[in-house]
Input
Amino acid sequence: MKHPVVVGLQYGDEGKGKVTDLLAQEADWVIRFNGGSNAGHTIWLNGKKVVTHSVPSGVLYEKAQNYIGAGCVIEPRALRKELNEIATAAAPMKPERLKIDFRAHLTLPIHLALDGVRETTNQSIGTTKRGIGPTYVTKMDRLGVRAGDLRLPTGDLKAKIEALCQFYNPLLKASGGTESSFEENFQVAREAGDWMLPFLVDELTPFYDVARQKRCLLEGAQGVLLDADHGRYPFVTSSNTIAGAAAAGAPFPLSKLGPVIGIAKAYLTRVGLGEIATELFDETGERIRKNGHEFGATTGRPRRVGWLNLDELRAAVRLSDCTYIFLTKSDVLTGEKEVKALYEGEYHSFPGWPEMHPGGDTKRLHPNLEAYLGFIEKAAGVPVLAVGTGTDRSALHWRHGRPDFWKV
Ligand code: IMP
Output
């Protein structure tokens, strides 16, 4: 059996949730393999709005087990808050349904402080200020604190946190911040130890056997163009976001991955700094932002809006070796007289679609939208399998039928 990987093909916020929610219904396991509480996903649990950051999409379905992989970073207080919200809206996430890889690194107050102070300098890149960059820095620096470290004898855990503070407080102070005390960092770790231990998994290869028996869904966070190696550096996040990162970040057996479902918006949005070649500064951009509710789920920041950049999209498709594209939010462009896309460095213009379906016939998409999709397919080199046609979870139009995502 092979297992689908869902990744964003742009700068995050592509509407991956629509697809992951759909696939999670059929999955036994939903696995996050990168990022931390920088991701944001709005879900409705029993009519109550919950924004999830670290908990995988399987939270919606009783049957699914959820896994926060080794390549993720976890801010303990934020995760606790998220779990409390889920418990209030639905039922508590028990350790039978949520597992945390012992290798995932913890985001402690010193990481949040380092991210925060850096963002006040002229070296800001517009992060979500969730301590993501510094947590991956201390991981690579081999000074990080891992979820599994919460099981250490108190003296050993203290020594780790002391070393972290010893090496990174001078940097924090030199950047204009105030020292993050050992006590406040240890306090957060100790609190985490009070509740997180039952969720921890110690297996080195948690999915080696599972991948041969159960349906898994690999859920990527952010988007390919924010990949630390392959994105638009330095305006990137600090983890790998391409589909290949699932193998290392879960970890998941490489030969069991695929198909890769790349999610792209019918236009482009970005939060944070960095160039958008197709950025719209006019009333068209305003209208799209408003109609598409383009405000960050994690930070509430208004998202910058632009036309689709097919040169970037093609690169993203290739970097993630996508099998097909899901195009979300094409309904947001309904009523635009003209829709544009950048391809081979030049703008191409397409007549807009006054309605999604010609004469309300939901079996077909408007021919102008079909023409736009045909161009995207040719440019990207893979089929546009489905199109999001509205905010409702079920508002999806399958253009080439619905495949079995877990082919044996
Ligand atoms: P960080 O991941 O918080 O370090 O932020 C680095 C860059 O990635 C910034 O431009 C953020 O706005 C962006 N980013 C991080 N996570 C997301 C996300 O889930 N959606 C959209 N942008 C994100």
Summary: The first strand starts at residue 3 and ends at 8. The mean pLDDT is 95. The two ends are 4 Å apart (CA to CA). Residues 350 and 371 are 8 Å apart (CA to CA).
